[in-house]
Amino acid sequence: MQWPRELERSRVAWWLIGLALLVVVGRFALYFVGTLVFGLFVYYGARPVCRRIDRVVEHRGLAATLTLLAIVVPGLLLLAYVGLVGFRELTVALEPGTLAALSDRAAVPGAIGRMLRDPARFATDFDRIGELLDQLSAGLRQLGIVANVLVHLTLALTMSFFLLRDGDRAAAWFRQEVGGEESAAHAYLTAVDADLETVYFGNVITVSLVTVLSVVVYNGYNALVPPAVTLPFPTLLALLTGMATFVPLVVGKLVYVPATAYLVWAVVTDGADLLWAPLSLLLVAFLFLDLLPQAVLRPVISGRSLHTGLILFAYVLGAAYYGWYGLFLGPLLVVLAVQFLNVVVPELLHGKHITPAASAALGLGHDPEEAAGVPADKESETE
After folding, report:
1. Long-range pairs for 159-162 at CB < 8 Å and ≥24 separation?
2. Which one of 40, 98, 360, 374 is most buried, by most CB atoms within 10 A?
3. CB count in 10 Å sphere of residue 178
4. Residues 6+ away with beta carbon under 8 Å from 4
5. Nearest 5°: CA angle at 363, between 360 and 364?
6. Residue 122 to residue 193: CA distance in whole angstroms
7. Using one digit for the tens of pLDDT, what is the confidence trace for 144-181?
């Protein structure tokens, strides 16, 4: 089709403006990539719950609010509890002299304390102004770190709220303006959407169940064995075991194996005949905190749509390369790549028309046609 010259210039100008906007927005998204992927994780982890609440209240905005309250409030309480338990058990483990030194470091800095107690006298001592400014700068930097974390957390939760509330509207716009329900683009993104919900929501449920099991196992072990071979910080170790379950195959080994090794070393050092206790803990932890999540909980909750090895590399390598947010970005990249291989690559290699049909060779992830709801008889029509 031949466009008029004026219209062609106008289209080129609009494309250039769109490209400039894409570059600016891309740089913005790259700077906040950790916040964005964490917001996506919260969205997909909470979406099944939001759907169930929406069926009851029949109001999407109220359902999104109740869902986030049901997740955020317990999450903040859990973090507060972890901090409280960690501090309490740290004070039990450390010597009084160490605690006094930490208390002095954590207290109000000397110059600030003297100024607050006697500001008139402090004002006459100009030699301490530099000391005060240095300590104020250090305090402001620490407050800045805390404020930055809170801002990013708030942005991630706000993003997840709007996705929960308006996600269906965005999907409807895409179907109407970009790709219809029988297009390859719609099938690709729908399959990615289904896979991300499977991975993220399945991990949230698995981590929660393993955390509860760890609390029972560790505290039950301490209640049954002699004091000489009890676990230090059992509740804190249980919470860490639950968090370690995010990584498939590795799971609780990151916590219970070093803890058991510590107990074995303590028994061997003391010469006590209590080696049965840590070995029993190792066996019970392997069965209930390792084998049960891998063989029963994760397949039942998450299904078998994605290869376990791919998800393992996604979590481990994502966190190793990108840092903390790689734990959420890694699975996202793997899902995007797998569905691209499923839907697009075979037709590109063979020079065929790209259809919603998945590659039969891979068989990974959700089937794009099933996820998009494409009827089976449509495949022959699109080829």
Report:
1. 159/35, 159/36, 159/39, 159/40, 159/43, 160/39, 160/40, 160/42, 160/43, 160/46, 160/68, 161/64, 161/65, 161/68
2. 374
3. 11
4. none
5. 145
6. 62
7. 777 887 888 888 888 999 999 988 888 888 888 777 77
Helix (H, G, I), strand (E, B) or coil at 15: helix
In the numeric block, which tokens belong to residue 334?
Answer: 């793997």
Question: From CA 193, how far away is CA 372, in angstroms rounded?
Answer: 10
Amino acid at 102: L
Among candidate residues 303, 369, 374, 378, the one with its CA nearest the CA of residue 342: 369
Say how many residues make up the chain. 383
d(CA 51, CA 38): 20
Whether the CA torsion 330, 331, 334, 339 is positive or negative: it is negative
Q: d(Cα 48, Cα 104) in Å, to the nearest integer?
A: 48
Tokens of 146: 């805390």
Which tens digit of pLDDT belongs to each residue from 76-105?
Answer: 677 667 667 666 665 665 555 554 555 444
